Structures are given as C-alpha cells and as structure tokens.
C-alpha cells in the first residue's frame, strides 16, 4: 500500500447513523469469531487438541492458545494502524475482516490431535495468530470510523457503536454454539459439531463485507489528505502524546479487559468443571448478561456526551472493583440463583467503563496518527488484561485450590486501573460536556505538557 494522493473531490459524506451501524455489524462479526474460539477453548479444545494432558493441564493449554491471539493483536494493530493513518480507515477495515473470516473458517476444518498429533495444536496456534492480527486491526479502526463521522456533541455515542459489537459478538457466538450443540447432541458436538460455528464464519464475513464496502472514508482522514498531513511513521509521531498520558490511559483501561475475559471465558470452564453447573445453563447466563451489556451501552454513552466522562468512568471503575470482590463468592455457593446474579451484575457494570474507553483512547491522538496511537494503547491493554486473564486465573485456581486467588487478582488489577483513571483525569482535565468539543480534535493538537 502507498500513500493516497490528495483527492480532487472528496467522497460524499455518509449518513453518520449508517456508518455507525456498519461499524457495529463489522465488529460484531469479528468478535463472533474471536469469542467463538474462547468458548471452544473453555469447553472443547482441551479434549480435541490436548488429550494427552490432565484435565487441568489441558484447560491451561487451551487457554494458552487463546492468549496467543492476544499476543498477535498488537502486530495487527501496528500494521493496520500504520496503513490506516497513511492509506485510510476503510481499506484497512475491509482487510481486517477478511483475515478474521479466513482464520476462523480454517479452524473449522483443521484435523485434531488424534488425526495428525503434534501438528494439530500447531495449526490451531497459527490460525489463532491470524485471528489476532485481524482483530488487532479492527478494534481501533472501527471506533475511529464511527467517531469521526459523528455529529457535533455525540462523539461518545458514536464511538460506542463499535463497542456494542463486543457483547453482540458474544451473544451471537454463544447462541450459535448452543444451537449447534442442541441439534447435534453432546457426543457429536464434542466430536465434530463444534466445527459448524467456525465454518459459518465464511457466510457471516461475506455479509459483513457487503455492508462495510458501502461505507465512505472518514471525514477526518479526508481532512488529513487535504492538508497534506500524512506522516511517514505515524506510530512514532503518536508517541508525542507523552509517556505519562500514554501510560495512564493504558492503566485506566486494562482492568475492563481482564474482568470481561474472566467473566466471558474463564467462568465457563470454572463453573462446569469446579462447580458442576450445566454447560448450557452457564452459556445462557453469560449470553443474557451480554444482552444487558449491549443494551446499556447507548445509555451510558449518552450520559457521557451530556455530563462528561470523568465521573462516569471513575464511578464505573469503583463499581467493577466492588463487584469483582463479590463475583466468585456468589458463584461458589453452587446455586443457580446467585450465579445468575453474579453474571448479570457483570453485564450491567462492565459497559460503564467499556463504552467510553474507545473515545478516551482516540481523543489522546490527533487525526493523522490516531489509528496507530489508538491501536498501540488498545492492544497493549488487551494483552495485559484479557489475553492473560483466563490463563492467570486457571493457574491461580490450580495452585490455590480455590477461587480466592482469582478474586484477589481481579481486585488488584481493578485497583490499578482505578488509580490510573483518577491520575489520567487529573493530568488532562475534562472539557465541559456541554461545549461538545473534544480536548484533542482534528483541527488543532498539541502534546500535553
């Protein structure tokens, strides 16, 4: 890819609502693929790809392949961020969707350990890397595309639409997973039926591409071209935001990722293998909580646009810390009622901080380096938080024999994020919400002192 020439005529502006819905559709499909893998890693892959290991070691190995995807995400974020700032948001988002679809579809056809032995987990890891690279390019880009099309005063609302793709993808993945299991039966599903949801990715990606190709390029990127503001190394330029702000932004968002993946992935393995809950019950409970997560994001983003992000984000950080302290004690009762309450609570609390973290990260950077800078922070947070969380939780559970260590791990990382958020908003005081002006806009930007 090369830097595009300055256009004689910009593309006609797309309706902001249509662009927001297109980014929601694309992120939903990408997260469907990513979460489908997480669910399969928790419930299936230990038997199919690591049968020679003990159940505990097999689960840890399966979660390790899950973590590989997170390690690959920064690579995707850096590559797609570079070209997104030099070539445009639209083209990179199309390629990222293709990569994710190809990786997921091929997972649906790879042989298992019983067929090709050692090479089965190797192929699984390779395709997981492809998935990670694709999602690494998607996360920041979709948020920017929607936010940069946003009407005045609605940046948080429009930046929240791609964030809704996370719970929507989880709901879609879990429903397809449960539906296929119900149609094939447990034995057949464990043997071969688990492949069907992955093969369905091909159809979904075709639909997603048809939607995404109709979206016009970001107005902010058009302005970058018109002002001849494309830089050769956008990632290096983005670092001018300064280490204190970059570090505090990273710390502020890392807990949300860690807590979300313990809730969405680790809980499935823990609840079925340690507490004896029915698999369908847990998957349905997580799915119901994800519906709450999805439905409340527009509410909280409107609150952020009207009243500001600071109080809402810090209050949400306190709430998620408190709920993490209660989460596993509720689950450990072994009863269905407290388990539903624990999971539903996560579905209500996680979106308070998740819905605006994309806009907080994006507003750290000017338009001409925003894709690269946002990808750096977002993917680093994903590794430190979500990528390691299921594996660390499993190791803590195996070493301590109870969920107490996992609870302390979540509380500690939430405490770090809360401290980071408080320090971040002190470093960069929030612009009054009613002015509807971002602190760092497209027209003028200076690195914080």
Automatic annotation (TrEMBL):
<feature type="transmembrane region" description="Helical">
    <location>
        <begin position="92"/>
        <end position="110"/>
    </location>
</feature>
<feature type="transmembrane region" description="Helical">
    <location>
        <begin position="376"/>
        <end position="396"/>
    </location>
</feature>
<keyword id="KW-0813">Transport</keyword>
<keyword id="KW-0472">Membrane</keyword>
<dbReference type="Pfam" id="PF07690">
    <property type="entry name" value="MFS_1"/>
</dbReference>
<feature type="domain" description="Major facilitator superfamily (MFS) profile">
    <location>
        <begin position="19"/>
        <end position="432"/>
    </location>
</feature>
<keyword id="KW-0769">Symport</keyword>
<feature type="transmembrane region" description="Helical">
    <location>
        <begin position="21"/>
        <end position="45"/>
    </location>
</feature>
<feature type="transmembrane region" description="Helical">
    <location>
        <begin position="192"/>
        <end position="213"/>
    </location>
</feature>
<feature type="transmembrane region" description="Helical">
    <location>
        <begin position="157"/>
        <end position="180"/>
    </location>
</feature>
<dbReference type="InterPro" id="IPR020846">
    <property type="entry name" value="MFS_dom"/>
</dbReference>
<feature type="transmembrane region" description="Helical">
    <location>
        <begin position="246"/>
        <end position="269"/>
    </location>
</feature>
<feature type="transmembrane region" description="Helical">
    <location>
        <begin position="281"/>
        <end position="300"/>
    </location>
</feature>
<keyword id="KW-0812">Transmembrane</keyword>
<comment type="function">
    <text>May be a proton symporter involved in the uptake of osmolytes such as proline and glycine betaine.</text>
</comment>
<comment type="similarity">
    <text>Belongs to the major facilitator superfamily. Metabolite:H+ Symporter (MHS) family (TC 2.A.1.6) family.</text>
</comment>
<dbReference type="InterPro" id="IPR011701">
    <property type="entry name" value="MFS"/>
</dbReference>
<dbReference type="InterPro" id="IPR036259">
    <property type="entry name" value="MFS_trans_sf"/>
</dbReference>
<feature type="transmembrane region" description="Helical">
    <location>
        <begin position="116"/>
        <end position="136"/>
    </location>
</feature>
<keyword id="KW-1003">Cell membrane</keyword>
<feature type="transmembrane region" description="Helical">
    <location>
        <begin position="57"/>
        <end position="80"/>
    </location>
</feature>
<feature type="transmembrane region" description="Helical">
    <location>
        <begin position="408"/>
        <end position="428"/>
    </location>
</feature>
<keyword id="KW-1133">Transmembrane helix</keyword>
<dbReference type="GO" id="GO:0005886">
    <property type="term" value="C:plasma membrane"/>
</dbReference>
<protein>
    <recommendedName>
        <fullName>Putative proline/betaine transporter</fullName>
    </recommendedName>
</protein>
<feature type="transmembrane region" description="Helical">
    <location>
        <begin position="337"/>
        <end position="356"/>
    </location>
</feature>
<dbReference type="GO" id="GO:0015293">
    <property type="term" value="F:symporter activity"/>
</dbReference>
<feature type="transmembrane region" description="Helical">
    <location>
        <begin position="312"/>
        <end position="331"/>
    </location>
</feature>
